[in-house]
Amino acid sequence: MTYDLGVNYKTAFNKTPVTLTAMCYNLTDKNYWTAYGNNLILSSPRTLMLSATFDI
């Protein structure tokens, strides 16, 4: 089992609505194998993603 954690924050820049998002996948940095078709693939390490969405 792995844990993911994400947060969203809504704000505005120069009166433009913005949603800031931060997401962390595999929070505990656990190694595991996963099946993909006929192959076994090692898990991805802890991954942090940041994004901004502007509503214009």
Describe the structure.
This protein has 56 residues and is mainly β. The chain is built from no helices and five strands. The strands form two sheets. A three-stranded antiparallel sheet has the order 1-2-5, with no helix packed on it. A two-stranded antiparallel ribbon has the order 3-4. Strand 1 and strand 2 form a beta hairpin.
Topology, pairings included?
Blueprint: E1 5-13, E2 16-25, E3 33-36, E4 39-42, E5 47-54
Antiparallel strand pairs: 1-2, 2-5, 3-4
Number of strands: 5
Query: What is the terminal-to-terminal distance?
Result: 39 Å
Quaternary state of the chains: single chain
Round the Cα radius of gyration to an integer and report it.
Answer: 16 Å
Order of the strands making up the biggest sheet: 1-2-5
Succession of helices and strands? EEEEE
Quote the average pLDDT.
Answer: 95
Looking at this protein, list some descriptive labels.
56 residues, three-stranded antiparallel beta sheet, two-stranded antiparallel ribbon, 0% helix, 62% strand
Short account of what is shown:
By secondary structure, the chain is mainly β.
